[in-house]
Amino acid sequence: MKKAVFLLLIVFTTSSYAQFTQSIFSKDPVIHLENWQKQKLYFGFFLGLNSYDFKFNYKANVADDIQVQKTTGFNVGLVADVRLQEYFNLRFEPGLYYTKRTLNYPESYFINFTAPAKASDKIREVNSTYIHLPLLLKFSALRTGNVRPYLLGGFSTTLNLSSNASSKDDNFGQRFRVKAWSPNYELGLGIDIFSEYFIFSPSVRGVFGLKDELIQDNDPTSPWTSNIESMRTRGLFINFTFH
User: Fold this and answer.
1) Residue 8 has what pLDDT?
2) Torsion of CA 142, 145, 146, 147, to 10 degrees
């Protein structure tokens, strides 16, 4: 009985997927939600993944750079889309982004350290919970059947709820500090896929920090911050939006 049910599920899923694919990508598809994007304002939500990095600029040349170990974080948020013209939309996508980066400092940074560097001195974990506020211009190509590709670009500001910006402790107290607010610019691309009941929009977007986010340690000779001219966020977002 279990095998029979499992087989029926496979057949049903395959059949449904085939029908969905045919309705979206066939040469003469049934046009879904033809007037949906002609609305002046519509809303949606997104779920997604992120990968954040840091770009370092140094005051003096160093033999070894700080290595950033990245992890895959997650995103969730809302979408408000305002139609400006047939091919242009203004989009606001407030969201919550969680990520973690581990900074690995080379031994050479601790040559003049007051005490022998321990393993814990060479590692700094940067956990970040961001409230991300992008304002984006969406340029859509001509719709073909139930598919419409688009480009995205714009600016955003980010509030880091885990910045430690107000902390008096610094790296000598095991506290890595960054600024709470940071501006960015963003570029990306995606595709609107029109189904019978909703629009599914996968997209890929890069985010690039515009200003230095690092808060220097209190000691100007700190091995963790003294040679860093600037530290800026770079990130990659993969979002799945539903309207």
Assistant:
1) 40
2) -40
